[in-house]
TrEMBL record:
Protein name: UBC core domain-containing protein
Ranges of Basic and acidic residues composition bias in the record: 246-258
Superkingdom field: Eukaryota
Organism listed in the record: Aphanomyces astaci
Domain UBC core stretches: 22-175
Gene3D superfamilies the UniProt entry points to: Ubiquitin Conjugating Enzyme
Amino acid sequence: MTDRHAENSQLTDLQTYRSQTMKDYGLMIEYKHMKHHVPSGIYVLPNFDEPRVWHGVIFIHQGLYRNGIFKFSIKIPEQYNATGTYPKITFYSKVFHPYVYPESNDLDLLPKFPTWDPDLHYIVSVLVYMKSIFYSKEFSPDVRRVANGKALDLFRRHPEAYVEQVDACVQASLTNLYQNEPGSSLRFTKPIPAHETLRQEFLQQLEPSPSAFAHENPSAEEQREETVTNMNDVALDELANQQADRPPEREVMDDPME
């Protein structure tokens, strides 16, 4: 009986390991495809030490939240992608919005995904929804059914006060831009002259050249360094464009959709 119990235990452990390995592999495939479908203005990179924690940033170019640069994390449960296994998006700075919990800065997914269907919903679906909330002008009529009832109440009854709160969270996102979260794979540094040189080199790399195929099998470390460099350069371009814009006066009723 003892031997049989041990064999059954080992079989269960093996099945669990295989199941989790397949989920991890599926997540890798999803990220690979997501890179080609992620909404514009959003950049995401997995944590190098924790593959089920991703770090991202969204640049807002229009609407009430324009010029905001909001960094966030995506925490993916081990059972993802299964029915009911929602990913969790948490902003690193305050986002005053009816669909963001004020205490935790977590994005409320239920308004868009009442149930999580693995055949229909993926992380890129959440990113599309996340971007859309910064341009939304319609919310649930019941303040008890939104993450931040105060934000919804101000949006409807006191739009000027709502805009003031939005301006404050946009400014906070810029103030905290260079405060990098521990372990984050996306890191921001204040612009220096060397960044422009790197930017130009990066743009040149986008042009095909014979030397582009000289190194066909880069090491994992080289791939990691290239990914981080490219992500940071693109983010710097977004930041430069963001800072160059001079925002006009904000009006709640004239919030343009992107």
